[in-house]
Amino acid sequence: MLSYRHAFHAGNPADVFKHAVLIALVRAMQCKEKGIRFIDTHAGAAMYDLSKEFAQKNLEFERGIGAWWNSNEVPDPLVDYLAAVRRHNPDGALRFYPGSPQLLMDHQRTQDELVICELHSTEQQVLREHFEQARKVRIHAGDGYAALERWLPPPTGRALVLIDPPYERKSELDDLAVAMAGALKRCAHGVFAIWYPVIEGRETTLDRIPGSLGLDGERWLDLRVMFTEAQRMGRMTGCGMAVVNCPYRARAELHALADGWPFRS
Ligand code: SAM
Question: What is the pLDDT of residue 264?
Fold first, then answer.
């Protein structure tokens, strides 16, 4: 049974970091003309209304996007990310928060395509309705790890894969390692961005994965940030994004993002 719903967490500090990294990767890859297949293995609902009950329950977004929304001094590494969220709130008040599939679609060029995977039936229906008119967007209603077998390699050889599981299953890290081993066999040069939480008293970091996949420091970039007291959510004290085959052009920006965290807001 799947109990995780991202609507409770949309726009929180972890989303800010994850989505800023994602946008930096997209922009770096789009310096080349050749089309990219974006694959979002754990998509969620695409668009979140922060005025609704789920988001209002714990107000996690106030510690994340909300903290920067009205700031006059936006730190450089967050400029593109904030602009992407502002596009969905044209009157200036923060109400709608775009999740990863929406952000990827917003950045899609005509030569790019998007594959969105989701296991939860409610979210699948929301995604189908939300993307009904979208061009070159496919909904994969099923397991995101299995989808990598179906959708890799892309015809152009260029892929950006976001892996953002809820870490509810005990086997998540093992499942992830197996899926990554298969994905790298199919698409050795693909760019993979894997989000993970840092949770007190639980092993959720990806420290064992590069060794098991034979990835050295050139191909495995692990960006980790620790939350301030005000940003913490329960036992989640930080989060990270591990990037496999990080484009050279994105490296400086991603380091600035991780090293500058939590920024002043
Ligand atoms: N990536 C989204 C974003 O950044 O806006 C948030 C995704 S949320 C953290 C994780 C989602 O994965 C949930 O909607 C959950 O239903 C879905 N999910 C859980 N297990 C899955 C699986 N094996 N394959 C695909 N989706 C899964």
Answer: 66
